[in-house]
Amino acid sequence: MTFNKTKLFVHHSRALSLELADIETFALQQHEVFLGTAGSVITRRNAGGFAYFAHKFLDGDRKARETYLAGPIGSDDAEASADAMRGRIAEAKDLVPTLRMLGREGFNLVDAKTYSTIAALHNHGVFEAGGMLIGSHAYGVILNRMGVRATPYATEDIDIARREALAFEKLPSQGLLEILRESGVDFVEIPSLNRMEPATSFKQKGKGRFHVDLLAPSPNETFPTVAVPELQAHATALPYLGYLLKESQASVVMAREGCCSVRIPIPERFAVHKLVVSQLRTGRGPKSEKDIDQASVLCAALAELYPGAIQDAVDALSKKMAKHFRKSLPAARKRLEDAAPRAWAELSGDA
């Protein structure tokens, strides 16, 4: 996908945005999603001759898996369970052509490992309880929801954050590491640089870079490790993260295998927070450039679609955040002044 340097984004057609809205509606109604492909219902017989139904599918690591469904075959309960699963499978497979079409048309779809990992968190109610998807995957979801496309992003990080204790109706019996492993990806803890501190990140076992970070707001400008007892885990606390997490919305993560609902920050806070964070990174290298690029795209789209939203997000900054925000403006100006003058006017307070 190639973009003119003076155009930060392009709109999707109304027809495609309506397709996304239907996908989102479906996703928000799903209590449980498949942890990979929809698969199929098969029959099995154990060594003792017991015949039963199983669900066969490909997990997030593209490995074939089978899970027990119901038995014995022929009993009313087992047949009803098998029929219900076949119905779910048919619904999921009916969506696949639309998901693939949206991906071809420039909507952001995540890969199989990312999808199955997010799906595992969804199935345990993490997003319903207040957990949020942030980072570049959230950026992709926000672009989709706003009906715009921009230069593609690439990341092997999944950033999950919580503003306060997650409000589960019933606490998960498993810890976060066990929940993540349900995806089929063999996650392990990443040891902290300070060996006395517990792990706050998890990666796929081996040489791959695919990993999940658990994050929380810091009460100041330090980066402490904080307990997340409801997930039997710990998180890295980040300065100013509370600002990003204060307002959120429900949306949908899409993959070629399926879709599931998540909670994400609102776009204007995401954009302004990205500008602030760009000034906090050591060395101000490629990650800072990515922060400013993503913020600029969202500001350009927001100014066109939701005038005044950027100004509201800027007005909500604390004094300390505002200082870092002002430092980011020269870099943002280079991207916005000519390409999106309305966005630049809102961002700089001249609107």
| Sheet with the most strands, sense and barrel status | 7 strands, mixed
Helix content percent band = 40-55%
On the 0 to 100 scale, the average pLDDT is 94
The tally of beta strands, per DSSP, is 14
What is the count of helical runs? 11
Radius of gyration in whole Å, from Cα?
22 Å
Helix-strand category:
alpha+beta
Give the CA-based shape. Answer: globular
Give the quaternary arrangement of the chains.
single chain
Structural commentary:
- The chain is of the alpha+beta class and 351 residues long.
- The chain has 2 domains: 1-262, no CATH class; 266-351.
- It is 41% helix and 21% strand.
- The strands form 4 sheets. Strands 5, 7, 8, 9, 10, 11 and 12 form a 7-stranded mixed β-sheet that branches. It has a 3-stranded antiparallel β-sheet with strand order 2-3-4, with helices on one face. The protein has a two-stranded antiparallel ribbon with strand order 1-6.
- α7 (267-278) crosses α9 and α10 (319-336) packs antiparallel against α11 (341-348).
- The protein is globular, with a radius of gyration of 22 Å.
- The model has no long low-confidence stretch (mean pLDDT 94).
